Amino acid sequence: MAEDIWKAILAANDYLNSIVWGIPMIILLVGTGLLLVFLHGFIQVRKFGTIVKTMFWRGGAKGEVHPFKMWCMVMGATVGVGNIAGVSTAVHLGGPGAVFWMWICAILGMGVKLTEVTLSLWSRRVLPDGRIRGGTMYYIEKIPKIGPPLAIFFS
Asked: pLDDT per residue over 127-136, tens digit each?
């Protein structure tokens, strides 16, 4: 009895995985990345000089986080150890051509990340004590009808 239930769960899982992680998901991810990169006008390429200049900026008020320190923190949280090992494994197994495709994926991912950060800043809230709250769940919450339950699920 328990074995039959387990087999049914595994079969349902395999079916869902074939839908979610198949060709439609690849098309959706690449298409979304291309759309956002074009809509932003290749800002990650056009404003590269400004990005580097801002990262090494020395000004700012007392108590502000230096942009380079913030970049290091965000990259550590975004990339993580798994992606470092994944890059070396991809180059080992796929050869140097894997680096080219990683660059393409990075450019497409930058468009998605820019949109995510922009929406997070747009939907952030300033609390009465001056602290700021923001993030993905705050802009998901603004979607009509299904937003609040989706935001709770995301959190």
From this structure: 898 888 888 8
What DSSP line would sit under 93-144, residue for residue?
Answer: HH-THHHHHHHHHHHHHHHHHHHHHHHHHHT-EE-TTS-EE-SHHHHHTTST
**Would you say residue 55 lies in a domain?**
yes
Tokens of 104: 């393409």
> pLDDT by residue (tens digit) across 52-78?
887 777 766 666 777 777 777 777 777
Q: Residues 98, 91: contact at Cβ < 8 Å? A: yes
Q: Is residue 98 part of a domain?
A: yes
Q: Which amino acid is at 52?
A: V
- In a domain, residue 74? The reply is yes
**What is the number of domains present in the chain?**
1
Burial of 140 (0-12, 13-18, 19+ CB in 10 A): buried
Round to the nearest angstrom and report the end-to-end CA distance of the chain: 35
* Residue matched to tokens 């809230």: 125
Q: Would you say residue 144 lies in a domain?
A: no
pTM: 0.67
Task: Domain of residue 15: give its range.
Answer: 2-122
- Pair of tokens at residue 38: 């074009």
